[in-house]
Amino acid sequence: MNNQRRTVLKTGSGAALLSMLAAAGIINPGIALADWNKAAFDAKSMADTLKALGAEQPADSKDVQVTGPDIAENGAVVPVGVTSAIAGTTMMAILIDKNPNALAASFTLPEGTEANVQTRVKMGQTSNVYALVKAGNKFYMATKEIKVTLGGCGG
Amino acid sequence: MAAKPMKIRASVKDGVTEVKALISHEMETGQRKDANGAVIPAWFITELTATHNGKVVLASEFGTAVSKNPYLAFKFKGGASGDKIALSWKDNKGESRTDEVAIG
Description:
A: 155 residues; alpha+beta; Immunoglobulin-like; six-stranded mixed beta sheet; 25% helix; disordered C terminus; B: 104 residues; three-stranded antiparallel beta sheet; 7 strands; 0% helix; 50% strand; elongated
């Protein structure tokens, strides 16, 4: 009698624990999502943005690449991609030097996600586009100039 | 305005899943002015998260410089035909939307 009661208690608490774990899993799926980094997105200059991201002295790296057109006819839709060949890349960001706010987008990459993201950005004018990559505790950077011809007038 | 569904394509090849998404959103920068010279307030997606069977595979933060109707493409290891890929975004007005597709 007593034994049976013990078993019931055990299985009961086991099930409760499982459901608690599941609930915790739903609330926090895999990695903790950081709040939108207002300071970094509000920063005007490249230097301020890097500071807000905690990357004041990123090293230039050949393993990081910005992909995009040499000349973009329409500054409202510029396809830009970032790739990194550095192992353990956990964060990538796209920064546009001459835009009102330099930071365009940042991506957090959990393990298993390739360091290769493509998107489209807006550019006010011809500018250097930077890819900032974080691997381990170090930051790396690459740059590419994209010329913007407003209104498709050429030149 | 109710947000329109996202267009999401996910395909798996050699154990790597490629996800391409086209998100319907104004992405107003807050820099433009209307005909009367009044500034059009910023309205843009701030966060976009992609999950594969409930596990986060990409967490992104957007600024106003992401183009209107944002496009996003990325790849991750794993995934099988029929697995669920879900994308959800949140904008600076507090609106949000989640769409889900199966890997083709």
